[in-house]
Amino acid sequence: MRQTTLSVALEVEPVSVDRLSALIDSVKCQEEDPASGYAEKYGRLQAGVPVLHFMSMSVFPSADYDPVFVIEANFDGPPGVFWGQMEATLGPQLRAMLRCCKKPANRDGPLFVAVTSPDSRYPVAPYFAARSLRPSAFHHGNRGLDRGRILDEGRLFLATRKALAQPDPAAPNPYRLMPAARIHTELRAALKSAFPWLEQPASVRISLAERIGDWLRVAGFLFLVLVGLSIPGMIVAFISPWPRFLVLFGIAAVLIYLGLYRMRAPLAGKGAPTRSGGLTIESLSFQNDLTSLAHPVTLTIGVLLFLGIYGVVASVIATWLGIAVTGYWFDKLWWPSFRVVALGLLSGVFFTLPAIVLWLRWLELRDSSQDAPPLNPELLREMARREDRIAQNHMGSLVLVKPGVLRMALFRAGHLGLGLIVRATATEERHAQNVRLDFIEKAHGGLTLAWGSGIGFPPTRFLVLDGASHGRQFKAWARHSMTVTRFWFSAYKDYTVDQIERHARIADGLRKPTLTPKEAAEWARDL
Amino acid sequence: MGEGSMTQPPLNRRPSWRLAPPDDARTQGVVVSGFSDLPWAEALFLYAKDSGAAWINALRAAAPITNAAGKEKEARAAALAFTCTGLASVGLPYEVLETFSPQFREGMYQEDRLRRLGDKIDGEWQSTVIRGGPIWSGNVPIEQPATATPSTPVTVHALLLLYDKDQADAQRWAAEVGQTLAPLGVTIVRQLSLDLRLDKRIGREHFGFADGLSQPIPFGPSVVLSDGRPSERDPWHGVPLGEILLGHENAHSEKAPGPFIPTDEKARADLLPEGAPEGFLNLGLNGSYMVARELRQYVASFWQSLRTGAERIRAHDPNAAHVTAEWLAERVIGRNVDGHLLCPSGFPAAQDGLPQNDFGFMRDDRYGHGCPLGSHVRRANPRDGLAKDAASAQTLLDASNNHRILRRGRKFGGPVDDRYRDDQQERGLLFMCLNSDIARQFEFVQQTWILNRNFATLFDETDPLVGPKGPFTVREQPLRRIVEVETFVQSAGGEYFFLPSIPALDYLGRL
Amino acid sequence: MSATAGRDVLRPPANGFKAWLTACLMAYVPLGFRVLRTIRPILRFGNTIVVTRYDDVREVFLNDAAFRVPYKDKLDIIMGGHPFFLSMDETPEYRRDTAAMRLVVRPADITERLAGEVERRAEHIVANAKGHLEIVDSLVRRVTFEVLGAYFGIPDPPGEDLRVWATRLFEFQFADPGSDPALRREVDTIAPALRAHINGLIEKRRASGSFSDDVLGRCLAMHAQGVPGFSDDQIRSALMGFIVGGPPQPPMVVPQALEQLLRRPEALAGAQRAARADSNELLACYIFEAMRFDPLAPALPRTATRDSTIAAGTRRAAAVPRGATVYVAFSSAMMDQRRLPDPHLFNPRRLPHEYIHFGYGLHTCFGIHMNQALLPLMLKPLLKRPGLRRAPGRSGYLSKRGAFADRLHVEYE
Domain with A119 in it: what CATH number? Predict the structure, then answer.
């Protein structure tokens, strides 16, 4: 099942911001009211929106723009179904919230009017659907597990614990004397009737088509990046004979490398060398699996292969373009096209890319960072009051992106690329929404890449270095851009990403009629 | 228990660390030493309502505060730390108090902090706090904000630690100090007699386990080794000095931020401007934040509960004859009674006569078949044990080391005769630790590791030793054993203290 | 008057090319809607508009001020010019009349007297049918009219068949878009006769002195107490409205639901499990999900009372001129994958908002709660029987006559 992540950002009428906050709070109160008639808190949303995994609602105040109302949601299946369920569950409340927002100036304006006019009976779902944004980079902790399955497998896990425990303190526990494979068959027999779905095969979490699609998107993205990087070289390659071309770009590249070498050092007192932190050369290791791209050999072969494929594909495209323009045929145009593409690629990798890095570094050296952003103590207190109540914390932050063409291009392309790559390479195990403090210590490289284009971010070096390694500064900066998460729903608040994967492993084992002793021993480790 | 005391004399182990001049003479001695040669100590909790700062100098005359430049073996030693209300009472202006860290200013018993530390949730004191709520705290903050902070019956302004070679001397000294302070309006509102009572050179906490074995080892330009060589980063336990001492470079490549005061006559004499903004002097330099928690230990309950648990396991599994109360207790701690880490292949070889501590879980005990994933030592310092694979082990070890605390706790209460019999004696541990960022160090350890119900894919259980009653998982092949453990430790009070440098003490005395 | 007695409940089937064409078109309606939802969600030809998407259907139903029910003209013929709330706008009279009727048609009746009765009679029929049963007439229509006739207090007119009368009037009111003159002739006889029949009942009951506890009796009691909304004309119109608008419908939708279950062995097995486990709630989920695949009608008409826009602000926004007829394709809405997850899958665990069987807003079916409870029970005894299957041959498949279900034969052990 494909999961969707989306966010809705709506500008709020400044005078209505308190009312909006109160409306969100009242939804929270309704959901937490023990007298709501549901067995547990958030029962209405749990039952009414069965596709929903997580949802947050926050109102971001800012000195630089009017307040922004942000809804983020993570759910199974297409957005239309989700919004339909939301409408059926919280329709009147959502309409009241929309009435606190500004009428958009674009073509959604009439829709807004239709939805918010007094006594309107127009459905709100289309408006939310129209205002939804798909984030360019996101990560799903338990990709391919729909909510029903996560909850089912959670119940199965609890049932296994109950079955394995011997309530009588004096009687022997039958499971204790069995080898793992036997435990598996006995447990399966014991749970089959209560969990009939164990007889059915599990749905495929990430289908081959989806996986291939992910990789194709990555490849397409990289292809476009290479084309972009090659453009300056390809233009020159048209008019310059190749020895001259190589000499020219060779000299230019050397100059750029010299510049880079001179600018490599961190700003005085602003370096934060760390030995590890996610996006570093160290994570490339021969200890990794040979099938993983984090293995140096695999990575090298992969890169070379990709560059080769790029050369051929781009040359074919260039030839066809040439045929369309000149009327000559393949035999005349193939080699000249290939020459242009190859020289372009050469210049792109060895000249344009470092030149962009040089430009970026030049900007970085002139960036200002906000070392002590103003923090609103009341807001901090409000945030603290709502945090750390369940296994997941929600963290929302809104930042302005540094100005400039390069920054914007890097930000867009970087997020798109990061998103696609994370999506394609992610195995099932990683932290999802619950970005805890230790995330800063563990993954500052990634955080720097993701947030480094924000105004006031701690000083970065070459996009990924330093930055979030200034842990305290980064935290202060992030806190400053955060706001109170007024409403936070999690469909499975007691389970972490890792725990859900543990449930999935247990369930997968129990779905199989038998396991080999080796499989069984590994499987039993999770029980 | 891991929240224990630094007890091991250095022996001929690797050279110990100390501070280089001039920082050594400016820093309180308790930073570099747990004074293991002074096995007896008195902890005096002071209350100084409206008495100004004069008492500080009088106290220092009666009990000179030891600095870190002293000899290896002192005859006696003393340390002094203040709560936020204490600093206010000696007359530190509000503007200066505002430059202390938010955790210190809000105090340990701020409502949201109590939830994160597992003491009080939704208005209910948890089972890990003594009945009726804790006895003492600093009753911070000074200005009551909108969110009410529960107050304790006893208010503590300062904590004075007196270390001596024998018990009678320590108590006599404490009495003298008390007499000196009484006329100045300072009262001793609580007193705990602390001790080490080494057993075969091993300091044991009340449950009987060797304690204080794993400590962070600071490095940096101001750290030298006892043999005079410059310090290097210890691959397993190395932390920048700024993790312990304010004003030095910390794990985030900046000087650990501390409080500062406007440059004025009274301060100019001793305090340095280094690290403080223009026009200010660094009050925090060479100081630290000290977390103190008075923890009561219920020894009979611990052993009885584990005996019941072991009996149950044996009844459930005829093959489990090896499971005894001791076996289970070792799993709860994660080490054996003498401090050797449990490991599937047997204890790691001792090093220099001491339990091996240069140990990563990833390589030798990834699945916790030796040292259980949820054991106290593994929760208190997971090392590289939270890594998903070998390649990320270093990253995770580095990340773990950004949350280390330097422990200086000692136990109180008499020895245990029969550990299965409840003799109604009050005993426990005065947990004390030093760190420069309370949120990133002490609180993180407590919240994200010790009390995390989902730690290392364990489900719905917390630290078996210091957490509330609940299940505890011991992994075995093929099936893990899950045993119910009781609440063995309860907190009776606690607060965040500021441990000033010697020049800062001088300054406070002149206020 | 006796011209209608003893005849088949449904009028003889139409013959010839037109009937054949209608049947063909009806079969392709779902496909047509599917195409429309994608390429032309709001279709307009002349003064007629068809809305097919979930959102638009919901919008039109909810916006009763702009899109009025077009029932008034024919209803006046049936009621003899007396008003009935079915054709009203949201006026004080509407609120008074519906509130009055809620005093006499009480929710508690469903569990206390109707549910048990429906199940008992259905069981009786199923038990006596000896393993071969026709569903539309012999089971559902019979149970419906027997139980509801008694509940309303309206027995068959002497020598006549109330099922025929009610169904003809229903067809005239709701399922006669072409205004067939032959049907009109029948209605001109039946409607006054039914009015006279009920007037007679009112007088007889009043004369007897004991009102007895059915809807008619309760109305008379209210009248006696002087509660507004219970004049004799109002009582008659309400009872006529109930008998014409209510009982003719279950014989349409319930057999249609069974036909859909018979097409899906897994769903049928699930429904049978629910029936055997006596889980009425789950059984209802199966029945209404089955009905989603063949609901009461493809669409319901509305008349635009003013110039307005449907789906304003979207790309498919369509202006509706005053006086236009809007066909609200609720059957299509229940198949709209924009709001329903996997609408083509039979899923008994759908959420309430995914069904629009009973309309929305002001003119939501008055008997919605009754229907939700009673319709599944009509099939429950049958579903409990082992070996439920279609009868051999064509009679084992549901046949329709115009808008009405005609025959469905099943067998069981």
Answer: 3.30.70.100
**Same-domain check for residues A54 and A152:** no
- Determine, for residues A388 and B252 on separate chains, whether the beta-carbon distance falls below 8 Å: no
Q: Which residue among C313, C317, C339 places its CB closest to the CB of A81?
A: C339
* Contact B/C (≥3 CB pairs under 8 Å): no
Nearest CA in chain B to A499: B457
| ipTM of the complex, rounded to two decimals | 0.85
C318-320 and C308-310 as β-strands: parallel, antiparallel, unpaired?
A: antiparallel
Measured CA to CA, the distance from residue B104 to residue B41 in angstroms comes to: 25
Q: How many helices (H) and strands (E) does chain A have?
A: 19, 7
Q: Do C337 and A77 touch (CB under 8 A)?
A: no
Task: Name subunits touching C (3+ CB pairs < 8 A).
Answer: A
Residue A485 lies in a domain: yes
A1 and C CB contact within 8 Å? no
A47 domain-assigned: yes
| Domain edges within chain C | 2-411
| pLDDT means over runs of 10, chain B (511 residues) | 41 74 92 90 92 91 91 84 94 92 91 88 90 91 56 92 94 95 94 85 86 89 88 90 94 89 75 88 94 95 93 89 92 90 83 80 88 93 86 83 92 91 92 94 90 87 93 89 92 96 92 84
Structure tokens at B259: 């409080």
* CATH number of this structure's domain C2-411: 1.10.630.10
3-state secondary structure A80-149: HHHHHHHHHHHHHHHHHHHCCECCCCCCCHHHHHHHHCCCCCCCCHHHHHHHEECCCCCCCCCCCCCHHH
Task: Return left, alpha or beta for A522; rule: phi > 0 is left, psi -120 to 50 is alpha, else beta.
Answer: alpha
**Domain span at residue A380?**
375-401+435-494
Can you say how many angstroms the Cα of residue A329 is from the centroid of all Cα atoms in its chain? Answer: 46
Q: Is residue A252 located within the same domain as residue A179?
A: no
Task: Determine the residue among A2, A46, A51, A81 to mutate to test chain C binding: the one whose Cβ has the most chain C Cβ atoms within 10 Å.
Answer: A81
HEC secondary structure over C132-176: EEECHHHHHHHHHHHHHHHHHCCCCCCCCCHHHHHHHHHHHHHCC
CB contact under 8 A, A84 and C339: yes
Q: Which of B111, B122, B253 to mutate to test the interface with A (most CBs of A within 10 A)?
A: B253
If we measure between CA atoms, which residue out of C209, C199, C346 comes closest to residue C270? C346
Q: Do A187 and A315 belong together in one domain? A: no
In a shared domain, residues A397 and A265: no
Give domain status of residue A414, yes or no: no
How far apart (Å, rounded) are the C-alpha atoms in residues B506 and B494?
26
CB proximity A121 to C under 8 Å = yes
Please indicate, yes or no, if residue A229 is contained in any of the structural domains. yes
